[in-house]
């Protein structure tokens, strides 16, 4: 490798670290993204032009053509996608990265590089790359709505874990057998792909943010492993950075649900075993309201907090909710949004959604900061959120979400909950907040209902 | 056991790099505000597309007569570059929305 290329890789590595660091602050995030992107550009161009190999021209044509083709596709997807589709998109791109690593592993296995270390890295790249690919595709299909139900095989925990052990054994066997039979590597590829499907298929709903960031982290690890294969520093450091950043995000999400990673990945949540046993609190009466009464309540309040959830994203109600917020603010009412860390289907989902409709990010307030404010709040408007405001997390030790930090909505003076139906949330548990004396239920599609609320409010003084 | 020690002594530099990179990753990311969770994830996602460097190397080292390697390698490049370009572009688009509104 030429020294110029090594220096280029070094620069790229520094831009990755710097870029990630800058991505962590709202003011510098955009710059960070661009810096990391330019470093990536340098690394790619350098790899193509600064190696010292004798390569026929048509290979350059293939490389150039593939890059151009893929870059155009990537660009088009990125500028066309709707912001509400962001979780799907992240999964899709992530899957592509994983697939790329797996393909590299397959080609390199054919070269039979000889040393055990290299064989191990090749096998690891294939296994991790394929798991991320098929796992991300399933996550994509689920988020897309193509695959709604959380499909669970009977005893899927045991099946999955046994399958995983089998996969590991198979991989170790290949390393020890020192074979160069291509068939066996395709069998491994297939097994890893199947495991990726089995791994993600039973996970759904509120656990999606954890899975997406975990898969993200795995792609980074796959990239780093491929980097070890080539002794390529920029791949190693870049991959590891993504891997550890993804893991931190994964743990942050788990913490927000008061669950361990093992519990999310291997445990049944909202499954049959944990079905609600506590039926005593059911059967209370709920108080229904309509948009005009709700509008009156809000019109005569001083402070309103909006709690957005996945239902808001599904109904694409981010723009009307922003209009509502602006109208209330104009009327001199203090409005803010309470953001639970796992609201939605990926980390930070609500923030992106509301940013798209131009909500000032100063108004998006994290759980710990907003919780003390509920007691001074006149009206809380919950839109399409359920488990993140369920008081059972505080006071029902038998509840599966017991111990999960929630938004203390019940401390507010009055609560309006907009939901489509009385169906319980993802966790499948009853929410006693709905039966609270202070709660009024405002049934209907989020977008349509808020629209009505808005026009009622416009007519008021 | 001797194999392990042998492996460690041969790859000491690599092991140092791995460990330091893990720590850098953790330190750089921790305490990030929730507002930036999605852009961070999608930016990191774009970074994991660095695997494309490996895909390019596959083609550069490939035997020009090995059609399978050439095809698989170019698919790996296409997928990798979609990950890179799409990831950075969409992160940029997302971050543009996070502009602070001046009143």
Can you put this structure into words, describing what you see?
The complex is a heterodimer of chains A (461) and B (103). In chain A, helix 1 packs parallel to helix 9 and helix 5 runs antiparallel to helix 6. Chain A is built from 17 helices and 6 strands. Chain A folds into 3 domains: 78 residues; 184 residues, no CATH class; 168 residues, Rossmann fold (3-Layer(aba) Sandwich), CATH 3.40.50.1220. In chain A, helix 14 links the parallel strand 2 and strand 3. By secondary structure, chain A is of the alpha/beta class. Chain B has 2 domains: 31 residues; 62 residues. Chain B is built from 5 helices and no strands. The model of chain B has no long low-confidence stretch (mean pLDDT 87). At the A-B interface, helix 1, helix 2, helix 3, helix 4 and helix 8 of A face helix 2, helix 3, helix 4 and helix 5 of B.
Features:
heterodimer, A: 461 residues, alpha/beta, Rossmann fold, 6-stranded parallel β-sheet, 6 strands, elongated, B: 103 residues, mainly alpha, 5 helices, 77% helix, flat
Beta-strand percentage range of chain B: under 5%
Can you count the helices of chain A?
17
Oligomer: heterodimer
Span between termini of chain A = 74 Å
E-strand count of chain B: 0
> Share of helix among residues of chain B?
over 70%
């Amino acid at each position: 490798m030429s020294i110029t290329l090594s220096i280029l890789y070094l620069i790229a590595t520094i831009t990755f670290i710097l870029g990630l660091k800058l991505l962590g602050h709202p003011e510098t995030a955009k710059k960070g993204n661009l810096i990391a992107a330019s470093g990536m550009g340098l690394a790619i161009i350098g790899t193509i032009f600064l190696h010292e190999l004798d390569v026929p021209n048509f290979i350059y044509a293939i490389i150039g053509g593939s890059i151009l083709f893929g870059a155009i596709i990537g660009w088009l997807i990125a500028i066309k996608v709707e912001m509400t589709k962001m979780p799907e998109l992240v999964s899709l791109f992530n899957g592509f990265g994983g697939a790329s690593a797996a393909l590299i592993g397959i080609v390199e296995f054919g070269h039979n590089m000889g040393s055990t270390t290299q064989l191990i890295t090749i096998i690891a790249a294939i296994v991790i790359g394929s798991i991320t690919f098929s796992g991300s595709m399933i996550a994509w299909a689920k988020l897309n709505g193509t695959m709604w139900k959380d499909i669970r095989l009977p005893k899927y925990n045991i099946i999955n874990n046994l399958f995983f052990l089998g996969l590991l054994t198979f991989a170790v066997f290949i390393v020890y057998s020192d074979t160069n039979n291509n068939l066996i590597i395709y069998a491994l590829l297939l097994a890893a792909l199947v495991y990726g499907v089995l791994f993600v298929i039973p996970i759904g709903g509120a656990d999606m943010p954890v899975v997406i960031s975990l898969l993200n982290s795995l792609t980074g690890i796959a990239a780093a492993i491929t980097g070890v294969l080539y002794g390529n520093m920029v791949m190693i450091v870049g991959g590891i950075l993504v891997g550890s950043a993804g893991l931190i995000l994964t743990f942050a999400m788990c913490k927000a649900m008061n669950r361990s990673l093992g519990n999310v990945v291997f445990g049944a949540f909202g499954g049959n075993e944990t079905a609600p046993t506590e039926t005593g609190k059911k059967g209370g009466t709920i108080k229904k309201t309509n948009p005009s009464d709700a509008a009156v309540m809000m019109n005569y309040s001083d402070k309103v907090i909006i709690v957005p959830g996945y239902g808001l994203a599904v109904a694409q109600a981010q723009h009307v909710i922003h209009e509502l917020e602006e109208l209330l603010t104009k009327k001199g009412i203090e409005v803010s949004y309470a953001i639970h860390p796992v609201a939605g289907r990926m980390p930070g989902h609500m923030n992106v959604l509301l940013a798209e409709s131009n909500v000032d990010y100063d108004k998006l307030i994290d759980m710990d900061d907003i919780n003390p404010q509920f007691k001074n709040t006149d009206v809380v408007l919950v839109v399409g959120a359920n488990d993140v405001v369920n008081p059972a997390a505080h006071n029902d030790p038998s509840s599966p979400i017991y111990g999960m930090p929630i938004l203390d909505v019940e401390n507010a003076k009055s609560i309006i909950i907009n939901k489509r139906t009385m169906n319980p949330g993802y966790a499948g548990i009853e929410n006693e907040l709905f039966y609270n004396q202070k709660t009024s239920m405002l049934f209907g599609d989020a977008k349509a209902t808020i629209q009505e609320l808005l026009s009622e409010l416009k007519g008021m003084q | 056991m001797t194999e392990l020690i042998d492996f460690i002594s041969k790859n000491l530099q690599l092991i140092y790099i791995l460990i330091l990179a893990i720590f850098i990753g953790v330190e750089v990311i921790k305490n990030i505000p929730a507002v930036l969770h999605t852009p961070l994830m999608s930016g990191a996602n774009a970074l994991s597309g660095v695997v494309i460097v490996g895909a390019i190397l596959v083609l550069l080292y490939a035997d020009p007569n090995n059609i399978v390697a050439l095809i698989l390698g170019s698919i790996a490049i296409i997928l990798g570059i979609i990950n890179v370009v799409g990831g950075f572009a969409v992160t940029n688009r997302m971050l543009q929305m996070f502009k602070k509104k001046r009143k």
